[in-house]
Amino acid sequence: MRIFACALALLILVAQGANAKEIQVTMKGMKYSPDKIVAKRGDVLVLVNDDTVAHDAFVSTFGFGVNPGGLKPGETKRIALMKRGHFVVECAFHDTMKINVTVQ
Amino acid sequence: MRKLKLAVAVIGIAALSLTVAAGSLQAGPERITFPTDFEHKFTLYGIIDRPDLKIVRFFYVDRPSLKAAKAGKPVPYGTTLVMADKKAKLGSDGQPAVDKDGRMIAEGGWIKVQLQKKGKGWGDDHPANMKNGDWEYASFNADGTPIADQKYDICFGCHNNRQSASEDFTFLFAPYLRDHKRG
Q: Of B162, B164, B176, which is closest to A62 when you measure between CB atoms?
């Protein structure tokens, strides 16, 4: 019985990994696009600065805080979504740039 | 009587000059003292993983200021915000290890402690391009000694991007208050 439970848990984990997807976010024109994201646990935000100025993408929401560092034009950073809940990604340099993210 | 008035005036001017001089000398990081034992006396209000720097940043606030701000009052003078860094635990690939929630794992003691403190009139001593309201910044080593060669332009420059009254030159504290205000 125990072996069956472990195998089932492993299968679920593998299935989750197989379904994980990359969600691309662009930063053109001083806007994140998309600015509302509903993702699944295991998905990855791929943040691409295709603007002409430097940007940033940090999460200040308590329990989700991460800052992968600034992004110069042309740079890409990634944030793995491993915790369920809601948080906001924002640019430290431009306070109108925000993404609302829900991880299910 | 005339000599007495003159003496009083001279003493008054001298005292005023000394006060102004002392105030000028104190402008900047020297105004901020290291809050000993902050990790126990203050309240933790945020943790930020920095995979690019391979550190984990912990954010604390002094409790009386947090209480006032949570009650909806403006962030009071004397508020001390702490940003303290620990090294991240690294995996065999040299990259930060993470837990089941994808959070980086801090290890060891503090490696750097940076402070943001608000004092009445402190902003008056800064030029417009180096003014963050009445906030000052100071950086310390883990043992509480000041970091002598620290440049503060980057602190003022970055925090200047959060000028609205609700943000008050803070990146994490304002959203924390928004999400944790008393109902």
A: B176
